[in-house]
Amino acid sequence: MTYVALGDVSLNLDAKRVPVRASFRRPGPYPYYGASGIVDWVSDFLFEGRHLLVAEDGENLRSRSTPIAFLADGQFWVNNHAHVLTARPGVSDIRYLCYQLQLIDVTGYLTGSAQPKLNRSALDSIQIWLPDLATQTAIADVLGALDDKIAVNERANSIASALSQSLLARASASVPSVPLGQLAVVPRRTVTPVPGGVWHFSLPAFDDGEVPKLEDGTDIKSAKQRLDRPSVLLSKLNPRIPRVWDAAKIPEMHPAVASTEFIVLEPRSGSTAELAAVLRMPATVDGLQSLARGTSGSHQRVSPADAMALEVPDVTQLPAELRRTLTDLATASASRRTESGRLAATRDALLPELMSGRLTVGEVA
């Protein structure tokens, strides 16, 4: 096995990064990346093509609740909380480098106690196993095939969501508006998780594919909201970035809880799909954003009381056929998310075996 320093097999483009405070960002079609992924959408871009982004700071470097290394493609902007790398031509495959960094424990490379930081020199010094370029590409192709299918499912779900919104937008003009509280109730079931398996509906889990994570209750350090019935979870945090989780089916075998960063909504009648669809409508998102409070543009929240008073279309008055269509589209999307979860589990099981050389691409085939 040949181990090399990451800085010797990659090119660092950190000098091209430009941070922009939230109050100065202009909305647009280009993703704006930070340490853990997309944090906003802006009107211009700095980078084009496939790049590897690596978190530079934040507690996630220790906790690894979300990936610390991920690929960005197309046209995008990056702030100064993520390192930007490309492959060294003829030496490394950028996808392979990404998969390697997903495995490596970077704790020993970090500085800072209150705010962990992975500085440029530490990043460059990280030791990775680097086989020949053909082997790197073959490994990346195997793992990438699984990620590609996950991406196909994500695109299909985006299309389904857009179709739901289009159908709802046309039909909503013919139904009255009512306070959100007339369509849903907010249950009060706060619990402190106990030792044992717990299905955790958290913001990181939402951002990582809308699949709850099975965690040990002892690892969940704060009180949560118990989920007993089909619900829609509406994020209080930064409503300008809508996070609406249609939890139509609560997992079995273990208790299920939701982060207190969500408002838990149980439909008074109808399906969770209908309620989720109305919460994703641009007018609803704008209304929630207008109700958000907070001094920081990146840490604003909307209160449950304000959200429940917001006027939204009464989806229970929609034609029965449209209501069935909204539910069918949501059910298919949930099925694809479940499949993506299984694919991700397969990828995660193969990752350490392929990256260590214990398993070859030929053996996988």
UniProtKB/TrEMBL annotation:
- What domain of life is recorded for the organism? Bacteria
- Keyword Repressor set for record: no
The Type I restriction modification DNA specificity domain covers 3-155
Q: What keyword terms does UniProt attach to this protein?
A: DNA-binding, Endonuclease, Hydrolase, Nuclease, Restriction system
- Example GO biological process: DNA restriction-modification system
- Highest lineage ranks of the organism? Bacteria, Bacillati, Actinomycetota, Actinomycetes, Propionibacteriales
Protein name listed in UniProt: Restriction endonuclease subunit S
What InterPro entries does the annotation carry? Restrct_endonuc_typeI_TRD, Restrct_endonuc_typeI_TRD_sf, Type-I_RS_S_subunit
Name its species: Tessaracoccus defluvii
Please name the GO terms that the record assigns under molecular function. DNA binding; endonuclease activity
